[in-house]
Amino acid sequence: RALAQLIDASVRQKVDASATGPDGLFYKGQLLRLIAWLRSLGKLNHPGDFQAVASGTRAIFEGAVDLTLLHFAPTTYPTAKLDAWEESAKLKHCESVSRFLAEHDREPSESERTMLRYIADGKTRIQQLRETWWPARDRAAKHPSRWTGRTLSEDATAADEQLPREFVEFYTLRYPQICWNVHGSGVSGIANVSEAAFPGIGGLAYADAGHYEFVTIEVIAKHLECLSAESLAEIK
Fold first, then answer.
1. pLDDT digits over 124-154, tens only?
2. Interatomic CA distance for residues 119 and 117, integer angstroms
3. Exposed, middle or buried by CB within 10 Å (0-12, 13-18, 19+), for 236?
4. How many CA atoms lie within 13 A of 188 on its CB side?
5. Collapsing DSSP states into helix, strand and coil, what is residue 179?
């Protein structure tokens, strides 16, 4: 909540004034997503909210990794590649919907017809984007699980090389535990945890979120050149 107040008082107006053009609007959009997570996390004040807290922490960490790569290595990781991945992901989903409808001989709903039109209108163009960004030898390019075409572990390593902010350390030591508390299968992450220690599950995730919330602000401010080093230090 304190960080949310700092963003409203010291960051958001400066980002709004500096975010021009598609590139600037992209970084402004990332700040707005962070603000939304902060507002959600600020409402989760019960130990039983640990699953939602962990989900927010994971999203904030992954976003911080992506922004670090996008800002510090724009030639290797341009925003156009991330945009292409988003369109590719939509196409993959729409094609899954199309196959399901065909296999079950079912008439599409209005929203499903929109997905079928997305295939008809964009498949050729999006396949060309896949060939451009994630080419495959001896076969057509497919949709990758991450926009970089690599694993999150590899991306965390690359992010640390650009901006040392404990990306690899978090991914190695904490990320699996965070995922255990997000996934719905089984009771990994909470089994054999005493009642007295249980609030610590969410508490640790809050601390992790706070760290990468600030990293996100730091990278956005660097990219848009809208906050001085002194201002960032004061916020931190």
1. 999 999 999 999 988 999 999 999 999 999 9
2. 5
3. exposed
4. 10
5. helix
CB 206 within 8 A of CB 58: no
Residue listed under structure tokens 């809208």 = 226
Structure tokens at 118: 């997305």
28-62 per-position pLDDT tens digit: 999 999 999 999 999 998 999 999 999 999 999 99
**168 backbone φψ class: left, alpha, beta (φ>0; ψ -120 to 50):** alpha
Give the gyration radius of the chain's Cα atoms: 20
Of 21-30, 111-120, 125-134, 156-165, the range with the lowest mean pLDDT is 21-30
- Residue 73: in which H helix or E strand, if any? none
Instruction: Return the biggest CA–CA distance within the chain.
Output: 63
Closest among 38, 226, 211, 66 to 147, alpha carbons compared:
66
